[in-house]
Write a structure and sequence with these properties.
This protein is an alpha/beta fold. The model has no long low-confidence stretch (mean pLDDT 97). 40% of the residues lie in helices and 16% in strands. The chain binds iron/sulfur cluster (2 copies).
Amino acid sequence: MLFESISFVMTNTCSAACDMCCFSCSPQKKDQLDKELVKDYILQASKLGMTKRTAFTGGEAIIYFDQLKECMEYANSLGIPSTLVTNCFWAKNYDEGYKKLKELKQAGLVGMTYSVDKFHQQYVPYESVKNAIMIANSLGIQITINLMDLKDGKSVYDSLEALRPYIYHNEIMMHPCFPAGEARNHIKEDQYIYECSADSALCPFDKSITVLYDGTMMICCSQFSHEIDAVKVGKFGETSLEQAIKNFNDNDIIYVLLSNGFGWYTDLARSLGKEIKEKYVICCHLCHQLFTDKDFLEKAMPYIKKEAQRLRLKHFMGIG
Ligand code: SF4
Ligand code: SF4
């Protein structure tokens, strides 16, 4: 499996402390990835051909502006463009926000995702988001506005209403709120939207290795990933990117998941007496249920190993 990019969850420091944050980020949290190590891993990524992009997120990576800029500049020097996820707090003042973003653009920033919903807007006024949209548009940086939905639909409706007409001509993504992290403590069960069919779900693997702010290396960066041991492939500073990819290739659980989809696992889980709902909020929600269930994993492992062996053999023979 060829990986295309590397992502860094640079810090759990944030300007906000949202009630649905999967990492429980806040202004008080201070974990941060070492920028020299980040640069070293960007170099490794470059040597391995993982040059599609370097993604930066948090927390708010932009709080540690100089470090972020230096990492982006380094990626840029190797021909790798950068992307950033942010809540737009830095654009409260248009001119200051413009200056910051212009510097990041010069450092190689090509795309941003703006997180907008009723939880973020307890900390970030819509004016900042509007400024951030105008700034990115004027600098030619592509943006995606990420809206999080709850069953009552109010969060998305209010955000769209508040941001008209600034959102026009920009990409908008809507996704349901995930029952992960702080959301489990603050959002009522009847507000989650269950629209992902368990039996036909597929892992949205995006060929990117993620490094979490605490140094955990993972094959994905969903809101659930950091609680799922099966997706972990190493430790930042200790595991080379090459070794992390080897660990991924040797991982029978993930190999079977990517080859067969969740249907194979839901059949197995039911046959082992496990309750599987018809629908989940997202496939990563189902992934979390299956692969954090130690009893299921213990009973399922012999079947997973056998299936992985069968699939690898098929692949080796050129018939899979
Ligand atoms: S802005 Fe994002 S990273 Fe910060 S607390 Fe909110 S959800 Fe977490
Ligand atoms: S389904 Fe599992 S392995 Fe796939 S992206 Fe989600 S958490 Fe990661």
